[in-house]
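Everyone, study these two lines:
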Amino acid sequence: MRMTIVKDDKRIIIDGEGYTTDLSVFDDLSWIEGYDLKTWGRFHALQWYGDPDEDGEYGFGLEEPHGEIEFKKTVPNLIIKELGVFEQAISLWDKAKVEEKERIEKEEAERLRLQEEELSFLAEFGDFDLEELLKDL
């Protein structure tokens, strides 16, 4: 699994499929050893390399799943070996995916309802002679 989280965009992308959702669960990074908001800045993004490439590497020549956290200030990205609190992003992504699917289904049902309504209207009132209607004017 390859995962990207972009805090400001409120986006979680897993294996190329992205959804927008609330990412406030990632506001508190005090669990990271040595984290200092003043020095490091706020969390900006996470890249997780959970699947090897065709060379059997997970990026940067590493042979195990890992990720990197990018902060707003100019500190080097922090390399992580496990997702930790970012594991929550998977369930947030799953929830956003379901909500998006339900929204699309609802929009499609409404589009079909309106189309059916239009066809019904045309079936009832669609056959008229315009010249006949204009005669009395």
